[in-house]
Predict the structure.
Amino acid sequence: MKSLKVIIIALSLVFSSLVFASTAEYPKIPEIDTSNYPKGEVGRLVKLGEDIMNNTYKHPLTKDLVGNKLTCTNCHLAGSDGKPGSAKGIGTFIGTAAVFPAYSKREKTVQTLQDRINNCFMRSMNGTRPIIDTEASIAMATYITWLSQGIPMKMDEKRPCGLYNSNRWAKSVKKFAKIQRKATHQNYLNGKKIYETKCAMCHGKNGQGIATFPPLWGKNSEGEWLSYNTGAGMSKLNKGAAWVQSNMPIGQGGTLTDQEAADIMLYVDAQPGADFDLQKGLFPREKMGYYNSKVLKEHHSVRSNFKAFGLDVDKIRGVIK
């Protein structure tokens, strides 16, 4: 009996340590009061930043910087309060400001919050990087900071990723990298089937987007790209799958299996997308000022993104065997 008690106590301690480790690895996202805006000029900028997030490709301050039909809210989903980035899946803005300045492996420098936001315009928005400290840049950073109020600072020396995204994002991305390296044409066909069943009703059979639901690939009748380019996180097979599993279908995040999420993004990212050329996303130096990055040349295409996982996109599509 005594030995049984010892075993029970030992198992309890192990279980407790696992629970603690899980909690430490994925800290609970707190509730943020968004019912009242700050007063004065700060409040004005919070509201302006929110407006830009909701209307990025058509807002007067950012429309000329965007090269597709997306808004920030398409990736940084609104929660029950309707505020951009307040949803609690991967991509939440809650706690994001608390980790900056943060090191970025991609730029090989320590990035500010404005750096991180503005770099997204070159990639997810398929456009041009806003100039630091312009009104739009400050407003977006002010809005995201507002969603981090009351959260202790914890600068991230590994990645420029929100406090409540960092560990689960890294683990999920690593998991999906292993899955995608084994992808075949059959996975592509399975992804197409799942997309048509669970995604097309919102994003369109041809990825063109429907109503307020965003486009995922292709061009419009004027020949303009509709969605993110091949430098965006969503264009990377593992990162896109991690985001999709956490957030999609809308309102049902976490319901897709690992393989379903991987296959959906294999199919989506095999579709036509704009090539990424870093230099094309930057204003001339005399206009832009200092660009906080040690990496000044970067190119991506659909083909190179698949090659990064050891895949031939033509074989995945079934064009060649």
In short: Residues 6 and 12 are 10 Å apart (CA to CA). The chain has two domains: 40-158, 172-317. Confidence is low (pLDDT under 50) at residues 4-24.
